[in-house]
Every structure is written in structure tokens, then in C-alpha cells.
């Protein structure tokens, strides 16, 4: 099995890995973010699933807080973290058992005995005492797990004390029996009686292996006594267990103490609700659902840049989206001076980007720029020092000369010009003047306090219209004009470039994003957006220095090498297309066009959508250039498309131009109202195809309906299920039963 470019089990133990994983989940998993976990307080461990030789296949991080837990399968590859199981890595499509290398019968103690429990935490609790233990993970995952490594072993089943555990044990014991595997089960009902006798309390529902060991520790037992008690627990062989499950037993004593949690439920939907609590989770208020960041597509970036983003997020303790926009801002600042971007087959545009990211005071904006723009800052500093030395030398040469000599000297020696081209303050007018004065050909307005621009004189004074127009012109045409009130006889500069990287607090961004002038004159529609979650309160103190990080050192060196090259000005190279990449871009153009039609996802955002393809070609150009390619390939444009789609989703999410009730809320009201119709697939169940016919017309559009369903699913209001059928798989929307118990 190919294990190259994968994490190892050892990697899972490093703090660096855990921090990167936490940052990824905060940025990409809505349920995880909604539970407000703190890494230091709520991280419980990572469970590794490997092949028989110990090579990591996937893992399950575990977080727990106030009775809520989050544990899902994940894996990592060249493009980063992914939630889900890497089925391509499984043999015959079957998941491996947990602790699979321990099940090698050549190395197991004889006779080969394995405890099979519900969940990794319980398996670890036993293996910590040298007892071989395994699990399939969730109680519902038996059918998808390869159980054949258990053949030739004697298996002891130890279920949780609840109905789900009883069902799990019955199914598993039957499957193992059919495989010819010898099976015993821990008699949990008898254990419950002993628990009551020793504590005068009822054994809690869900009581498991881990809980049992904790009780023994609290009673003062050492490891040797705990092992003896585990090995001496009452057991039933398979035949006795199945007879007992069928009702041939005397459980009256326990029943008189407490209604047995293993009794089969006779309730209908109410009982099912209790069973399905893990499936559904708590309802998340709509305000919280609507404000969850769009999952950030780290895999959109070339591998080297993706690693830089991860390292920046780690050292800066910032979301991936903030780190990625920092990287985009840096490569735009540098790359705009060397390369122009093709717009489909219709000429060329500057490769410059306009970026806006939200970040509150102290959220890591400044640290992000320090890391991603370090090479640029170092270059600016050195260039300024050289300029000052040349200026002093020039002034010294001028001193003592006669007027005639001074004139002759000036004609032969131009006054040195300040070469700095990255600005964190000042007006748009001043930056444009630097272009027209010939101080620089390429510049960036990189600012971590965006209110200085958004609420400053440039965009608020009587020259605001001219400032906005100037920003739009230089973005689209590479032309800069000195801004005056009348703009009459203004000086101009051509073939110049400007990158805008603006980080701002919500109090500054919110009014700007709803400013008619900024929208209608086209400045905001040219921008890419990110509104990441606020990491304050969940960050960890990072004592390592980014200065010594090899990934960042390589990135800074590459940036420095580019900055050391002479500027090309009007002779910038023109990036080419590989034919398959151009076909993808053209197809994307058509898709964006359709999205702006009535009922389309971008119907109300046409100004923004109309810039999506252009921004995608600019990003793809920068990716190709930074890799050293002469043409945009498929990976470049596909990654760029992911980023502009992310930005567009963020812009829609943030907009205040919404109705008092969202599409998702209207859909939920309709589902509840129509939950009991006999045409449904059971109470509270709907076929997706039927919804498209029955819903109000403005909710039927595929993109509108899918987005509304996604919001409801994120909030645990509905569950989306694919149901196999005679002809094809049907999609079923299942309403959370708690919504039907009025």
C-alpha cells in the first residue's frame, strides 16, 4: 500500500498537528464551530485507524464539552485535511478494525482473546492495561467493517448499558457466529445489579467500559486489581446470551429497581427521538447558522502555498481564510510586476487582486501580514535604506555648487525617489501621485486597520467618486491618474499595477459593504471576500518562532528572489492557457452567467458575479507564475474557481440585503406544515423530487432549494438521506422529529 505523502501515527501526537487540525475544523466544519470548543480544555485525543502494518489510513479526533461530543473520521493528503473516510484506501471497500496491528495472531498471547467494545475510548481504556481490544467505531458501522481479522480469535463483547448497545451486541454476536468465531459477552445486566448493590445507585444509561474502569479507580484499586476485576466479570456464552435476549431469563430484581435500559422500546416516534439524539444533535438557532463561515478550500492552492498557509495559521493563530488572503496579497504584490492574466481568449488584464478580510482588533491581522509579507517588508526596508544613502549623497554633491553648476548636475543626475511601494496608511490620492510621479510601477495598499481607508477622507470627501474611479481604473486597465476635485488636466501613468489587501473590523466593513457608491461604482464587486470566525478566546500560546520554520524560509527566499529581479513595466509577460484549462474557464463563465438568471443563486449579486471569471483567471495566473509555469493548467484554474466561489458565498452570507425571513426558514415552515400529508415518505419525510413540484415557486429553483436545505441540515433541522430503490437512488429529506412534537 502506498503510504507516501501521508501522515504517520506518530504525527498525530504532535502539538503542531493538533493545532493545525483544530484551525481547519474551526474554519471548515459548521457543527464543530457551533459547539465553541477550546483546544486546551476540550480536546480529548486522536484515534488512529491503520492497516495491518501500522500505516495510517485515517483518524478520529475527539472533542467533548458539557455533555456534547464531536468525533468524526478524517484523513489527510497532499491537499490538506478532509472530514470523511478515505474509502479508496480500504481493502474491498471495508473499513479496518481499530488497533488492527494488535490482532496479528502470530504475535498475540495464546489463546488469542480480543475484547470488542463500542468506541475507541473504551478500546483504549482496555489496551492501556495490556488487554487486546478493538472496535468498529460507531455502533452502526458493523456492516461496513472488515471483521475477518477476528477469525481464529475468541471474542468477548462488552456493550454500553443502553438499547443501542443491546442491539449492537445482538447483531455483532450473530455475525461473528456466522463466521465461526467463538464469542462470549460481558453480562452487563448482572453488572448493573452489582453496581446497585455496591453503590446503592442505579447504573447510568450508557455506562461503558471507560466508566467501569473510572469507578474502580475511584474505589482505590491499583492496575493489577483493575485487570483482575475486568477478567473476572460475569459472562454469558453466545447460546446463553441469545436465550436471555429472547426473554428466557429472570430479571425481575433489576426491573423492580429500575426499568431495564435493555428492554425493547415499545414507543413510536418519541422513543426513536431518544435513540437518534446523536444523529440529530441540538437545534442551532438560525442566526448562528447564517453566520458560520463558508468552509475554506485550502486544497485550491498549489501544495507549496497551502503549506505556507497552514504554517501561517499555526504561528498567527488565525483562521485559514485569513492566512490564505495574506498569501494571496503577497503573491499579488510581487507577481503583478511580472505577469498579466489572460481573460479567456479576449486579451489580457493585470494580475493584481483586491482582497477584503474581516478581523477584529487583536484577532491576528497584523501577525498574518508580518508572516506572509516578510520578504516584501525586508525588501522595502533595504530599498529605503539604499534610497536614503543615495539621497544624502545627492544632497552632499549639491552642497556648495553655484546655481549654474546645480542646474548642470540636476540635468545629469536625477534626484533619488523613494522606492517604497507597500503602503499601510495614507490616502488614495497620495498613492496615485506616487504612480504619476514615477516613484514606482507596482504598489499595494496593505492595511490591517481598514477603517483608515473605508472611513477616511479618500472615500468620504468630495473626491470620493474620483478615488473610487481611480481604484477601478488601475485594477482594470493599469492606468493611474492624480486625483483632484475637477480631475482636469490630471497627470496620468500607464502600465502600472496596484494590489489592495484590506483587513478591517466589522464596524468598518459592514457600512462599506452596504454603501451604494462603493457597490454601484464597481469597487467592491472587484474584491474577493473572507469573513472568518473570531479565534480570540480559543487560541494557544505558540512559543516557536516562524523565523526558523523551513516551509516559511523557503517561501520567503522565493519571494525575495522575485523581488530582486528588475521590474518589467509595459514588458510584463503574458500568461498563456493550456487548452484543457481554457475549456474549464469557458465552462465556468457559462455557469456564472446562468447563476445570475431569475431564481439563480447570484440573481441579486450580478455586479459581483460578473467579476468572478476575471478574478479566477487572475488567481490562476498568479498560481502558474509562482510555480514557474508559462501556462495556466487545469489545477490552477480549478483552484482559482474554488476561491472565487468561496468569496462569492461569503459575500452573499454577509449581505444585509435579505428578507426578514430567510429561504431556509420559509422552507422549514412549509415542511412542518405539510409533514403529515399521506403522499410523503412517512411522517416528516419528503422526496426531493416531490418538493420541487410542491413548494412555492420561488423556493423550487435548484440552487435556492439546495442552499436552504444545506442551512437546515447544518442547523440539525433536517437530515438528507440517499435511499436505494428499484430504479435509482432517491433523495429523502427527513424532518427532525422534535419539530413534530408540539
Taking the sheet with the most strands, its summary is: 5 strands, mixed
Number of strands: 25
Please give the alpha-carbon distance between the first and last residues: 54 Å
In CATH, what is the class of the largest domain?
Alpha Beta
How would you characterize the overall build of this protein?
The protein is an alpha/beta fold. It folds into three domains: 191 residues, Dna Topoisomerase Vi A Subunit, Chain: A, domain 2; 353 residues, Rossmann fold (3-Layer(aba) Sandwich); 82 residues, Winged helix-like DNA-binding domain superfamily/Winged helix DNA-binding domain (Arc Repressor Mutant, subunit A, Orthogonal Bundle), CATH 1.10.10.10. The chain has 33 helices and 25 strands. The strands form eight sheets. A five-stranded mixed β-sheet has the order 7-6-8-9-10. About 5% of the residues have low confidence.
Topology (SSEs and partners):
Elements: H1 15-28, H2 30-34, H3 39-42, E1 43-50, E2 56-65, E3 68-71, E4 74-77, E5 80-83, E6 113-117, H4 120-127, E7 133-134, E8 154-158, H5 163-178, E9 182-186, H6 188-199, H7 209-218, H8 223-231, E10 235-237, H9 238-245, H10 252-257, H11 269-275, H12 277-280, H13 286-290, H14 303-316, H15 320-335, E11 339-342, E12 348-350, E13 354-358, H16 365-372, H17 374-398, H18 403-412, E14 422-423, H19 428-436, E15 442-447, H20 451-454, H21 457-460, H22 464-477, E16 480-481, E17 492-493, E18 497-504, H23 506-513, H24 516-520, E19 527-530, H25 550-563, E20 573-574, E21 576-577, H26 579-595, H27 606-609, H28 612-627, E22 631-632, H29 634-654, H30 663-673, E23 685-687, H31 688-694, H32 697-700, H33 702-714, E24 718-723, E25 730-735
Parallel strand pairs: 6-7, 6-8, 8-9, 11-20, 13-18, 13-19, 14-15, 15-18, 21-22
Antiparallel strand pairs: 1-2, 2-3, 4-5, 9-10, 11-12, 16-17, 23-25, 24-25
